[in-house]
Design goal:
Elements (H helix, E strand, L loop, with lengths): L15 H10 L4 H7 L6 H5 L6 H11 L3 H4 L17 H23 L7
């Protein structure tokens, strides 16, 4: 029989129990944050303790008075912006840039404007 090994989170990120403990120290719960944010329940806040969810990460970080990148440094870049996720994140971004470039060139051509450098 193979034992189930729980997926370990990045060692630099705060442990979910530590996040809840810090909230408890200031008298705040995930349920209270959810209520204040007009969410139907706190399940999405609980989920973001394990999975990246930038909107909810910000709600928790705001309650603690820090930036989300302090709590979850593995989920943010050096500018504090959420990292793109998924195996196709880079490819999709490159494809979107290429499509935008094509549409800008097509619009310029239609308007009779040259896009080549002189």
């Amino acid at each position: 029989m193979i034992a189930h090994t729980p997926k370990k989170s990045n060692s630099e990120d705060w442990h979910p129990a530590d996040i809840k403990a810090e909230l408890a120290k200031i008298g705040v719960t995930l349920s209270r944050i959810a209520f204040d944010a007009e969410l139907s329940d706190s399940s999405s806040l609980s989920a973001c303790l394990k999975r990246p969810m930038p909107v909810n990460e910000k709600r928790i970080a705001d309650a603690l008075g820090v930036k989300p990148s302090v709590i979850w440094p593995s989920r943010y870049d050096e500018n504090g912006e959420p990292l793109k996720r998924g195996r196709n994140a880079t490819a999709i971004t490159a494809e979107m840039r290429a499509n935008k470039s094509k549409s800008v060139k097509a619009a310029a051509k239609k308007a009779g404007v040259s896009t080549s450098a002189h």
